[in-house]
Amino acid sequence: MLEVTPRCAGTLDAIAIAINPHFVDKVPRDDLAAQAHFNDTFVNRNLTARGLLEEIRRGHAFAATHRKLRHRRADGNMSRYRCRENFLSAQHLALDFDDRGFADLLAEPFIRDHAAFLYTTASHTPDAPRARAVFVLDRAIEDADAYAGHTAALAHLCWPFTPSTAGSWPSRTWTASRSPWMV
Predict the structure, then answer these.
(1) For the segment 109-122, what is each residue's pLDDT rounded down to a tens digit?
(2) How many structural domains does the chain have?
(3) Owning domain of residue 126
(4) Helices (DSSP H) in 2-119: which residue ranges?
């Protein structure tokens, strides 16, 4: 059985995670060249939860570790590196809450007790709160389908809050935020 570790971001061993140190904050959606470069320049690293939090504070996105291979897709085009077929592992799960701020998330016992850390996303405003909870697992998930299943199960544990379902994509990037609102 996979377990979410209790909240102790500073004391966990290093986990394998992909970081993109080449970009800061979000890449504009309409800049296709920058999006392509962003998606292909993640670097697999080993970081503690505190180290991951520092990368996020620097504005660096993170994702599951992945291979640097291209695959021919059904439409004949080549894939990017960050795709389901290249998923290696993830020892983290993250959930986006597009209608909740810190006070709401910290009031929910499971999130308060088990999230390694929380931070507001780059699109957070006081009138439209957006926060992210990052959880560190006791061991890595090495199967893309299992990753999706564990994310769905984690979202269920956070009821009555409803996180975005995009977090279950194995190749999902989690954009950073240099927001001061991190706990």
Answers:
(1) 999 899 998 888 87
(2) 1
(3) 15-174
(4) 32-40, 49-57, 102-107, 109-114
